[in-house]
Design a protein that fits this description.
The chain contains 14 helices and 7 strands. The protein is of the alpha+beta class. The protein folds into 3 domains: 65 residues; 94 residues, Orthogonal Bundle (DNA polymerase, domain 1), CATH 1.10.150; 210 residues, Intergrase catalytic core (hpI Integrase, Chain A, Orthogonal Bundle). The strands form 2 sheets. Strands 1-2-3-4 form a 4-stranded antiparallel sheet, with helices on one face. Helix 6 packs antiparallel against helix 7. The chain is elongated. The termini are far apart.
Length: 411
Amino acid sequence: MSKPESKKDPWFYDVHEFFPGVMIGKTRNSGGNWYYRYWVTGEGKYQSKSLKTKNRAVALAAAEEIYFDTRNRPRKGEKIFSNTVDELCDWYLEERRRDVGKKLITPGRLVTIRSQLVALRKFLGPKVKVSQITAQKFLGYTEFRLAKASLHTIKNERSTISSVFKLALKHGKISHEQLPEWEKLKRMEEPRRDSFTVLEYQQLYRQIRYWAVEGEGDDEKFLRELIRDFVLICANTGLRYGEARSLRWRHVRNIHIEKAAPKTVAVELFLTSDITKTDKSRTVVGLGGQHFQRRKKSAVFTKPDDFVFCVREGIELSKRQLYSQWKSMMDFVGLGDRKRLTYYSLRHTYATFRIVRGKVHPQVLAQNMGCSVNFLEKHYAHVKTEEMIRELTRTDSKDEGLYDFLQINLE
């Protein structure tokens, strides 16, 4: 923005310009004190400051000191005026959006960060100047959030907020003294991940086909058939929700039918790094190959680059479409009271069943799921505890043993 045309300002008089666009003067309300004024071209407004003196020579010296202190900041990419909290958050999101383009973070991670910054905006106030924020201000964040969020969620939000302010410090937007100061959190156990029990999964598997055909009209029936396959494939392969949505036919490498057990249909997938959460490609082997066969048989778009789960227009199945049907599906199959079960629970179900069966080495399972063995141990420790209880209390009789359900075909 260019500097406004020079006009006589009745409120700013006795002006002395000591550099182009840099001046001192007095205002009607200054009580005779001098004011510093500097037009900041890149930000389209004046920087003004009271010099708190009536002595012209002292005022000029103070004004020069302010000017020399601030004139180089725009050249370094730094703003002279303090950002608001909204502006700081928007700037940080733009930085992270660039990281998505560089494949440093996933689009899903960006969505999570955006959600976490909503809480920060509410806590600090969107229009509050960042320069007014002190490190001690954040000591009240945990109490502010406890009414609506778990300690685990708050811990993750605090980590993101710290990252915002560290990057802001690096870019000269805040001072070191403004880095957030946090109160201690009590030690937390990793949150238990909800999964279907064997009986619940059997219930889902047996009823979901009837739910699919009872949609209202051809469009809803089509969508429900698509979601049915999505659900069963996620539960049989352990794919992440986002990985399954991004799956294309070129990722499906092989479907294998066991000769000794014709009903056992395995599938081999090769996930390229652009669709995985870890940005690393991996091979996934799972059951449920028949669901891929059924999907391809009924699909219109089956070229290598077409989405496995796509709607009639050939675009990927959206989150809105998936979640618009989840409650209906769960109510129909008789699991509507299990409010904490979501699409993500299908991956947790896969991991739980594999661990309980005890026939898969942890390293193999971790590689198949695209996570670490340490991650499995932290998030599924309760599964091993339950397995120990069953093992230590089972009887010799298969009819009475609590371990029998491990032999149930999960399909």
